[in-house]
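Limitations

Structures in this collection are predictions, not experimental determinations, and the ligand pose is part of the prediction. Treat each record accordingly. The example that follows, with guanosine-5'-diphosphate-alpha-D-mannose as the small molecule, is included so readers can see exactly what is and is not provided: the inputs are given verbatim, and the output is the predicted complex.
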Amino acid sequence: KVVAVIMVGGPTKGTRFRPLSFNTPKPLFPLAGQPMVHHPISACKRISNLAQIFLIGFFEEREFTLYVSSISNELKIPVRYLKEDKPRGSAGGLYYFRNIIMEDNPSHIFLLNCDVCCSFPLTNMLEAHKRYGGMGTVLVSAETANQFGELVADPITKELLHYTEKPETFVSDLINCGLYIFTPDIFTAIQEVSTHREDQANLRHLSTFEALQSPTRAFPLDFVRLDQDILSPFAGKKQLYTYETMDFWEQIKTPGMSLKCSGLYLSQFRFTSPDLLAGGDGTRSALIVGDVYVHPSAKVHPTAKIGPNVSISANVRVGAGARLINCIVLDDVEVQENAVVINSIVGWKSSIGKWSRVQADGDYNAKLGITILGEAVMVEDEVVVINSIVLPSKTLNLSVQDEIIL
Ligand code: GDD
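Predicted complex:
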């Protein structure tokens, strides 16, 4: 048997995701019409002998209760939310719940960051992991960017030889994708790190100099990070190996990246769940271009033109002649007649007036590269909003460009 653990983090994280994380935990923000965490969960469903899926985080339990019970029913696999009493780091959280995770006596544990978007090649990873015979295997991808963990691997054996978390200077063009497989030995490794910390802390009583030198002095003893505290020290010891994905991989820290990843997941639906894409069944009469998701409760006028990369959530109404391209439209939004929405995310319960335009350049990495309307924003008729972020509950009766409306 195997189990999967998805790290969902908590409310102190995800500040870069504002204003979309004000009322919804980032892991439940919809990408391609499904909560962000739904994508790794449904990838786990394809692993054979999967006993349970655990979500570990420090969001309030009630925020996940509904979702966890509905996805368990849908996939017919137990999905449980385990709430940490405080942030313990990615490895500390895993260790804290070791007894629950080991209930089914799994031979392997999949560990997934919730905020990555990829094709989740979990079965291939497991096969490779079994061949290598180590304690852990890390999914890696060839990229040059310094906001990730960078690593050096043996080109033949694929052993992880050297690991640096978010280095300031170039280390390697292989990055850590935030997906791992471990044997239960990982718990011993985390335990070793904590014990070592404790020893150091005891030493510190003897030597102030040593305490000042210690790079970990700012962390509580049970705060253990998977990357710095486990991958770095265990690299080069024939315990950790790498599996390289040649498929797409992205990290989802900002609203801009969520729009890009929504599109990547929609195009993946072509192969994995074509029934979720609009237009295929011929029942929707609006003109659909490319990959589009429309929630069954949404009402889209037959003369509207939608797509590519558009996700329309529950109870949305789209009026006659409206044009939507590259956008996420959240629950209960109204897009009125002849309005245009391009490269934007439209927050819950917002309303876009007749002949108005909500748009942006579509640069996913720029701060104002996509336009974001927070919850319950009203854009009045004929108003144009370009490259802007509008905070919740604002009414716009004048056009704006390159602005953050507080
Ligand atoms: N439950 C829990 N508790 N989850 C946590 C905690 C914690 O204390 N801290 C972080 N997480 C979750 C986050 O929600 C996220 O899903 C994942 O763990 C990793 O978050 P960070 O530790 O903030 O790291 P990062 O996302 O900046 O970078 C990590 O992932 C990259 C790939 O996306 C590193 O491992 C990088 O090396 C890697 O490239």
